[in-house]
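Please complete every field before forwarding. Incomplete forms are returned to the sender.

SECTION A: IDENTIFIERS
Entry label: holo-197
Bound molecule: coenzyme A
Molecule representation: SMILES string

SECTION B: INPUTS
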Amino acid sequence: MHNHSAGSLSFSSHPATDPSRPVIRPATGKDADQIWGLVTSYAAEGLMLPRTLEQVAMRIDSYVVASVGSRIVACAALEEYSPSLAEVSSVAVAKSEHGNGLGTQVVLGVERLARARDVGELFALSLTDTFFLSMDYTPASISRYPEKLARYEALRAEGVEIVPKPCFQKMLGESWQLLQLVADDDANSAVPARRAS
Ligand SMILES: CC(C)(COP(=O)(O)OP(=O)(O)OC[C@H]1O[C@@H](n2cnc3c(N)ncnc32)[C@H](O)[C@@H]1OP(=O)(O)O)[C@@H](O)C(=O)NCCC(=O)NCCS
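SECTION C: PREDICTED COMPLEX
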């Protein structure tokens, strides 16, 4: 697993000019209760897997949230299965905020976190298929992810009801390397050409 202090995420710290505007940021320990509340409300509807408050608190550095003041209105998490593979999980937006782009924003935040941790491949499971398609994920077979299937089996053994959901996948590697190349290119072109002697 990764050294998370090395793979931590710094979001822009510009204060929101309008305090009623949601801020997208990494979660902190103080957010655990509200994240747990949000996830639990949808888990009860079978839309996502349940989490205990302890599970959320222990993995708080893998969550990204949208907050308005002290209220958490959306969250998503990066669930790592190996150094190169992770799931975008626990995507939840408060019902009052649906359709405002916050789901997209927290998933983009999780993608940034994944890149910071050198994760190359993301997958997600969702009944709202157009949500992940709108963010350039492509349909995939869950059989590609035996790690996830094994986790499902363990949860079933604990009595958790698993609702089958379509699977989506996104490779981060290529576009990240491309961005890196553009950045390197920009940096090189900023270096003044050596004067011919
Ligand atoms: C699914 C969910 C996270 C979407 O959050 P959101 O902030 O409302 O989504 P966005 O505004 O960023 O929408 C982005 C795109 O997703 C799609 N989308 C979002 N909600 C949708 C819905 N209920 N049905 C169909 N498509 C939907 C649309 O294509 C939308 O693009 P558009 O607004 O241009 O049409 C939110 O509805 C939610 O919390 N649902 C309950 C929890 C859940 O099901 N989580 C499972 C993992 S996704």
